[in-house]
Design goal:
It contains eleven helices and 15 strands. With about 400 residues, it is an alpha/beta fold. It has two domains: about 190 residues, Rossmann fold; about 190 residues, RecF/RecN/SMC, N-terminal domain (Glutathione S-transferase Yfyf (Class Pi), Chain A, domain 2, Up-down Bundle), CATH 1.20.1050.90. The strands form three sheets. The chain has a six-stranded antiparallel sheet. A six-stranded mixed sheet has the order 8-12-13-3-14-15, with helices on both faces.
Amino acid sequence: MTGAVVGVPDPSPRLAVRRLTLADFRCYARLRLEADPRPVVLTGPNGAGKTNLLEALSFLAPGRGMRRASLADLARQGSGALTWGVAAVLDGPAGRVEIGTGREQGAERRAIRVDGQPAKAQMLAGLVSALWLTPAMDRLFIEGAGGRRRFLDRLVLGQDEGHASRSGAYEHAMRERSRLLRGGNADGRWLSALEETMARHGAAMARARVGAVARLDQACRQGVGVFPTAHLALVGEVEEWLSQRPDSDAAATEAEDRLRAALARARARDAAAGAAVMGPHRTDLSVRHGGKNLPAGQCSTGEQKAVLVSIVLAQARVRTEIGGQAPLLLLDEVVAHLDETRRRALFDELAGLNAQSWMTGTDESLFDGFGDRAQFFRVADANVHPQA
């Protein structure tokens, strides 16, 4: 069903999804939901389709979406549909924009359109920044580095639109190099060319990470109300080379040279391992609870959730300072482990952001602290109903 548009002045001074339309996406055959710029609260039982709405919104930004699902898995189950679509009308400081994305028949990559015209994923980075927290991220600090690295790069992308293209170029060259090394008869000149590409883009990736984490760490140390301060650091060789002089072009060039030489020396080792064993693709993000001076992974579940929320809110402040616009925040079941004091503090922060936030939960009473500063929708059996 369609939600009610509350009378709020246009255009919005904040980034806000005003209309979301789905076709054969996850559990939704068809959906058209309209909203105003306030935070959006989606409540309903488990399995009703709340998280699917957040996932749809995550595809308005570059990347593989909130769940990193394959394109085929996003089509409505049991319908025989092979295609799906997500479209949105967004308002913001730059005016109104329409974004459409989805899978077309026989396509291996999702199609993207901006204001009706075909567009590349990189264009989305200049229009929409999105950041999400999901229950699966509750174990972010105690599981492998891969999840933290993806979280890190989403934070970096929110501060540097070019980060995704650099990362993509680096990873493509790395895969080609690994394939040649596994073959056993690689042309040295071709390997050198791939290592040159890896070094150039890898050093740029590391430099962007160092700058972004420095800004974010400073924002986190300032604290966000009752949320704990978080201390952030990078664990990676290339980032370490740059950490003392992050703004120096000479240091970036030196890091590029060192990485190129290290890759050339490691060919035999990487051939045996079947992959490059050093480089920015192995970087980790270290997070400590500032008040307790403990690694976040050693804190309680509630404390870890509070640290994550603190990082996300700090990122929203940094993003606003850099570009004047906070990211869309997609917060799936985020209040479940927060006490009432922290819930109310979170609602205060979200209501004050210059970008819309979307939240889900099974218990509507947990969101009472929002009052009329948010708009509420009930989700049941892939239907969405506005609540007064």
